[in-house]
Amino acid sequence: MRPDTPAENVDHNAEAARLERTAGLYPEDAEHLLVQAAAHLELSGDRPSATALYDRLLSSPEPLENPHLVRALKAANLWEYGHEAEARAIIDGVRATSPRDPAAWVIVAEALESHDELEAAHETFTEGARLFLADVSEPPYATHPLLFGRHRVRRMLGVAHDDWDMLADTLHSSPVSLDELHDPKRVWSLGSDNPAELAAEISRLRAELGTFREALSRPFPVAVLHWPADELTELLTAYPSLSSEYPSHEEHLATIEASLRELSASGTPNLGIVTGTVPSYEAFAASEATSPADTNLLPQYATTLAARGRAVAWPPQRGAGCWCGSGNLYTECHGSV
User: Fold this and answer.
1) How many Å apart are CA 213 and CA 236, to the nearest integer?
2) pLDDT band at 78 (very low <50, low <70, confident <90, very high)
């Protein structure tokens, strides 16, 4: 669940420094960029500096989009260089808050798993799965690592398959089954002198690597641009020609939901919503050497925001607030249409 940071042919310290500089230029993207920078520092072996970046984010006066994920990443990093007690305390705190982000659950569960706390890892994966998957007919893509991780830990514990394990099997797309990938005896094959056993293990590793690459190569979400009411008012005041695109804020919100439902019905995966601001949009227009009044710029702006990691998955998780910012549950707001 670490950010996409290729390990080969990368100067991780230099890349971390570049991302920090970029965060200074784009403060609205600082959280995403600094998390990426911290991941590079971890890969370089400079774990104290990575912790400093996580602390910088957590102490920021600006509210974070995903503070639970940042805390989870900090805990996993701390444990790797000897700060077990602090890491455990943070993990307990993350679990107690029941974050609505599957990634935070996966990070803390994998931290426990990597330190042979298999029972605690199993409990954590299960808590997360119960939070997101109860009464859900189709598990969202973001929840798949919860099911896969839970399957892996249960396999190591020698626990019999249950319904969620069978669901994980059906979601797994690799030609090598999860049972085989998660077989505890695999590690013995790596020290075998039997060529057949080694060849079989190489095949399994290739399949596992293929699944990992597929996850990393997933395209940016097909992102639909959302303007909050005050931002849309400011936008149309400055660029009235855009009123043809946005007759009213209510119609704008209805169009977003309708467009996403239509895309979903057509089989388009990985849908998301990005929220625009006028200063950000104007800066983007300047970087493209064009006018913000150009309607062709709007989808390009949405794609750029998605590429920066600003997209929020649609539809929202069960029990989550509506994407429109009304404060109501999605199922009681635009999800009820």
Assistant:
1) 42
2) very high
